[in-house]
Amino acid sequence: MTSNDAVAPTASTPTQPVLRATGLTKRFFSHAVLEDVSLELHPGQVHGLVGENGAGKSTLMKVLAGVHQPDEGTVEIAGEQRRFTHPVQAQQVGLSTVFQEFNLLPDRTVAENIYLGREPRKGPLVDTAAMRRDTAALLDGLGVTSLDPDRTVRSLSVAEQQIVEIAKAVSYDSRIISMDEPTAALADHEVELLYAIIARLLERDVAILYVSHRLKEIFDLCHVITVLKDGRQVTTRPAAELDEGALVRLMVGREMSAFFPEPAPGTEVGEELLTLTGAGNGYVDAIDLRLRAGEIVGLAGLQGSGRTELVESIFGVTPLTRGSLTLHGESTTIGSPRQAIRRGLALITEDRKAKGLALQQSILDNALGVVRSVFPGRTSEARAGMPGVLSSMAVSARAMDQEVQFLSGGNQQKVVLARWLSTNPRVMLMDEPTRGIDVGAKHAIYELMRGLAADGVGILMVSSELPEVIGMSDRILVMRDGRLAGELSRGSTEEDVLALATGAGEARHTEDVA
Question: Which of 48, 79, 236, 393 could serve as 218's disulfide partner, Cβ 3.0–4.6 Å?
Answer without folding.
Answer: 48
